Amino acid sequence: MKKISILGSTGSIGTQALEVCSTHSFDVVGLLAYSNEKLLEEQVRKFRPKIACIADPARYQSFRTRVSDLPVKVVTGLDGLCETATIREADTVLNAVMGMIGLRPTLAAIEAGKEIALANKETLVTGGELVMKKAKEKGVRILPVDSEHSAIFQCIEGYRHCPLNKILLTASGGPFFGKKREDLEKVTVESALKHPNWSMGAKITIDSATLMNKGLEIIEAVHLFKLPPEKIEVVVHRESVIHSAVEFEDFSVIAQMGVPDMKIPIQYALTYPKRIACPVKQLNLFEYGTLSFYPYDADTFPTIGVAQKAIAAGKLYPTLLNSANERLVSLFLEGKIRFLDILDTVERIFSLNGDRDVTLENILDGEEEARQWVDSLFC
Ligand code: NDP
Ligand code: MG
Predict the structure, then answer these.
(1) The whole model's pTM is what?
(2) Is ligand 1 within 6 A of the CB of residue 80?
(3) Which ligand is in closest contact with the Cα of 205?
(4) Which domains does the chain have, with CATH numbers?
């Protein structure tokens, strides 16, 4: 039985992961939230972890008081994040925090030899080279949780030594599929948060609406599967039943399918290489009748092209893109900028200096510079 520490346990992925853990009585030894004290307390009472991190230092005292009757170590801040990621009792760390804050705990967990179930795609976008290098050095497995990457991982299982022609990365198209730029002028936060197929945290839902999510996923796939970006083709597939596919040299295409429910890829990363019953609906293809496929609209949504350009340029460009996007999404959610400002601004990240080596120090500097650059434009 795996012993799991969950970073981001109060989020969309985190709560679904706990549902999986509860179904199978997995041992949850670490839990972490940023500010949702109430839910974290409930989780601590139910799962009895050894450590619980409330990452926002301002909430440390009050959270400690809430769980003072329990034998749990309470930690906070970035040190707390890293401690929860490296706790001795855990053999697997599920990283499901939101955003680039996930990089350092991932590196710390790898250093400590933990298996990584990785939902936090920003970790690979901003620091993929460092993460994959360290994982190789330490002989640590990175098991993808993102549904497309889990699908690709499953499709190539058993064919590790067969070269791939390409990856077919599916995309739902988000809530604004079929819209043109002029239709996006008055997009509200509420409408951008309405995803057609998936219920997810706010940041990734906005990324899905701008299609930046698919751009970030291309970068994620480049690192995980060691393919150049031009071999990753985005296919808009509205039903989200095919979670992605791969084409081999013989033109045979293998796809992975299932209902759009994150519990399947979350559980697979936690039970790998085993497959056990999962608390989700079965796929009934007759309910769908037809599955549809389209190219994406590169004129309306330049985000995927920007991500392709950033990963092709390499160095710190993906870091700059990721950080600028994260700040833009947060400003949009706060009602401070328009939806189109996200699309228009990410295209301009190449005006920043990304021609620097990928070291942790440079990544952290680059993240801060991109954040400040966005603030200088809008705040
Ligand atoms: P949510 O916003 O629902 O949850 C984020 C979690 O991270 C919460 O537990 C939150 O705590 C915590 N958190 C937020 N900010 C910080 C911080 N600064 N320090 C520490 N913890 C923090 O996000 P999702 O679950 O949707 O997504 C998590 C990750 O998984 C993202 O990287 C996303 O791209 C990826 N992913 C998500 C999918 C999904 O279906 N949701 C699908 C594929 C990938 P609190 O609740 O206290 O704020
Ligand atoms: Mg995905």
Answers:
(1) 0.98
(2) no
(3) 1
(4) 3-144 (3.40.50.720), 149-313 (no CATH)
